[in-house]
Design goal:
By secondary structure, this protein is of the alpha+beta class. It has helices spanning about 10-30, 40-50, 120-135, 145-155, and strands at about 55, 70, 75, 90-100, 105-115, 160-165, 170, 180, 200, 205, 215, 220-225, 230, 235-240, 245. The chain has a five-stranded antiparallel sheet. Strands 1, 2, 4 and 5 form a four-stranded antiparallel sheet that branches. A three-stranded antiparallel sheet has the order 3-12-11, with no helix packed on it. The longest helix is centred in the N-terminal third of the chain and has 24 residues, at about 10-30. The protein is globular.
């Protein structure tokens, strides 16, 4: 496994790629409302990315046909935007987006409620987001990769939710997906030792019901097998000698 350690110059490029993506996500979040189509969300996302002078890194990636993955309710990830898929009051929707800035990738995901949602759906969104923050408490140089995985699992398991096992986080840099793979569930081994300069996309995907998922006939959309709601939260993170730096942290949280 070859995990890239970014130079000071590369880290600056990653910071800018991620800063621009956080702006895109903030704008997309404002657009979420009942009546908007997932196609309109994708079109807005692509325009925002290109207006930054960047390239949407999901578009045509292994054949994926859109710039923004828009996944509704029981869709875990990789939902394909459609003109006839209209968000309804009470839905939850996950937006996964990334861009390329001067050859460097960024990647982040958020889950939103559409209008007024149930308390149970809101808790799923909140727990998924918090599980990311529990995980990155361990994302420090000298710790081990699976310390992150174990921390996410320990937090989520308290709520009885299913942690998706078929999809994991990943390294990121000049490629969208680099080593290492980062599970969101407990591991017996410790994994590689974290070093300053690693950039990781950490992304818990949590189902309200069981962990099992299946792929739809489009070969992209991943859904909870039991039809339960699913949430996704992701940021690109820089490992430092001290606390981790969340490169795609929302502007409102900086």
């Amino acid at each position: 496994m070859a995990v890239s350690i970014k130079s000071a110059r590369e880290i600056e490029l990653m910071r800018e790629s991620c800063r621009l993506l956080s702006i895109v996500h903030d704008e997309l979040g404002k657009a979420i409302r009942p009546g908007i189509s997932t196609y309109e969300i994708d079109a807005l996302g692509e325009k925002l990315i290109r207006d930054c002078g960047c390239i949407p890194n999901f578009l045509h990636y292994n054949g994926y046909p859109a710039s923004i993955c828009v996944s509704v309710n029981d869709e875990v990830v990789h939902g394909i935007p459609r003109k006839d898929r209209i968000l309804q009051e009470g839905d939850i929707v996950s937006l996964d987006a990334g861009l390329i800035y001067k050859g460097y990738h960024s990647d982040a995901a958020r889950t939103y409620g559409v209008g007024k949602i149930s308390a149970e759906a809101q808790q799923l969104i909140d727990v998924t987001k918090q599980s990311f923050f529990e995980g990155i408490k361990m994302a420090k140089a000298g710790n081990h990769l699976y310390d992150i995985s174990n921390a996410i699992d320990a937090y989520v398991s308290q709520f009885g939710y299913g942690i998706v096992r078929d999809l994991v986080g990943h390294g990121i840099g000049t490629s969208l997906h680099e080593d290492p793979q980062i599970p969101n569930f407990a591991q017996r081994r410790r994994g590689l030792k974290l070093q300053a300069g690693m950039t990781l996309a950490i992304e818990p995907m949590i189902n309200m019901g069981r962990c099992d998922v299946e792929w739809l006939e489009d070969d992209w959309t991943v859904v909870a097998e039991d039809g339960s709601l699913s949430a996704h939260y992701e940021n690109t993170v820089l490992i430092t000698e001290g606390e981790p730096e969340i490169l795609t942290l929302p502007i409102s949280e900086r």
